[in-house]
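[User] Once you have settled down, look closely at the record that follows, and write a paragraph about the fold.
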Amino acid sequence: MGINGGIVKSRRTEIIEAAERLFRDKGYLATTMRDIAAETKLQGGGSLYAHIKGKEDLLWEIATEAIDGFFAAVYPITTQDLPPDQKLREAIIAHIEVISTRLSAAAVYFDEWRHLTQPRRDQFLARRDEYEQLFELLIRAGSQQGVFVVPDERLATLHVLGAMNAVRHWYKPDGRLNAHQLADGIATMLLNGLQGR
């Protein structure tokens, strides 16, 4: 705890957060370890390497923490005893709230994963596919029960995921809508489309 009762961030956390911002703003390839050291006010690369092995380790940690956050928010909803439309609504809201509260990490997760090398790349893709399947199963359940009118469940899943994930490009935390209002509005529009309204 800090002097005023605030939580003091560890140096490693500061490095991760700096890497998130730089990877989002400049891109992974254009960001150097020197950039990250400067952002965290560490003296030279040597001090930085005392806390992290290399740049790809930062990318892997950010991507892993992001997918962990998505699973933690959405998976419990999929196991609840709810009607399929309500379950999907809550999953959409949870997903968008993860993005809107961790914009830099989400942007890195969606846009920079391609720079992971093997075997991390395959591990990332396997977890991403597993997560996307949560939404496909929710849509399929709603379709089978006649709640959703979708000619192609996979296409509907990609549409929902694409609409949600685009939030990272334009959402502003200090904008007109807070994170929950944004998520609720998008959930309503997406569900209206799936239900043929």
